[in-house]
Design a protein that fits this description.
The protein is an alpha/beta fold. The chain is built from 9 helices and 9 strands. The chain has 2 domains: 9-23 and 71-111 and 156-234, TPP-binding domain (Rossmann fold, 3-Layer(aba) Sandwich), CATH 3.40.50; 29-68 and 116-150, SIR2/SIRT2 'Small Domain'. It is 33% helix and 19% strand. Strand 2 (87-92), helix 6 and strand 3 (107-109) form a beta-alpha-beta unit. It binds nicotinamide-adenine-dinucleotide.
């Protein structure tokens, strides 16, 4: 049944597409390429072990790009939704930190955060906003290499974040999926789990995706335009 009005329980799943209009390149677009490397060639533990300086140079490029970006209208509308909806969870595959910068608090970062580093020996995570780095690759006080605190291809997701995401997917009334290609697992399964648990699933994307096959609504268009319109509709303003 089509939900009428503002849902009482909402899970939002976002991907790189929500940040595209803030100027953060997605991985699938041409502008996501750096020195002709595909992200799959650099965002792996094997690549880091082979050449940590190269992987860090790529992250420095990405941190430089992202550091100059601001949240857009789609990020801001999710802050309004969080304020108005009693049970709200924002699950993101993005590592750019723009949801927190916009003001969302109930954020589950499935793939980590590019503004944090992790010691490869001790596992300690620290905020690290310095850019550019003075020394590449950076090292922990203990002498071991630091790595970006992000989930690389082939690595497992943080178990608590994954549990929180599946809990929200299983129990939400509405799931809103914004700007994800729906090909990176296990995040891609979340809308299906929500659907099987009885949620109304809405997707916003500039093109159809594998998720579109089973959504209740697919809204085609840029996230920064379509997300505020959806919120206006839920509020009965349009
Ligand atoms: P993706 O790059 O695979 O797909 C992006 C999706 O966004 C596509 O379906 C595309 O059609 C859609 N899109 C592009 N512009 C849009 C717009 N203006 N409005 C709405 N939709 C738009 O991204 P993904 O699905 O998030 O998965 C790739 C992985 O890449 C994730 O694991 C993520 O961690 C990582 N990543 C993150 C960032 C970031 O933090 N901003 C950027 C690039 C990649």
């Amino acid at each position: 049944m089509t939900p009428v009005g503002i849902p009482q329980s909402l899970a939002v799943l976002t991907g790189a597409g929500i940040s595209a209009e803030s100027g953060v390149p997605t991985f699938r677009g041409e502008e996501g390429l750096w020195r002709n490397f595909r992200p799959e060639e650099l965002a792996t533990l094997a690549a880091f072990r082979r050449d940590p300086a190269l992987v860090w140079e790529w992250y420095e490029w990405r941190r430089g790009l992202i550091g100059g970006c601001q949240p857009n209208a789609a990020h801001h509308i999710l802050v309004e939704m969080e304020r108005a909806i009693p049970r709200f969870t924002l699950i993101t595959q993005n590592v750019d930190g723009l949801h927190r910068l916009a003001g969302n608090r109930r954020v589950v970062e499935l793939h980590g955060n590019i503004w944090q580093v992790r010691c490869t020996r001790e596992g300690t995570v620290t905020e690290w906003r310095d850019h550019p780095l003075l020394k590449i690759p950076p090292r922990c006080k203990c002498g071991a290499l630091l790595r970006p605190n992000v989930v690389w291809f082939g690595e497992s997701l943080p178990p608590e974040a994954l549990q929180a995401a599946f809990d929200a997917a299983c129990s939400c009334q509405v799931m809103l999926v914004i700007g994800t290609s729906g090909v990176v697992e296990p995040a891609a399964s979340l809308p299906r789990v929500a659907k099987q648990s009885g949620a109304w699933v809405i997707e916003i994307n500039v093109e159809t995706t594998p998720i579109s096959r089973y959504t209740d609504e697919t809204i085609l268009g840029p996230a920064a335009i379509k997300s505020p319109r959806l919120w206006a509709r839920w509020q009965g303003l349009s």
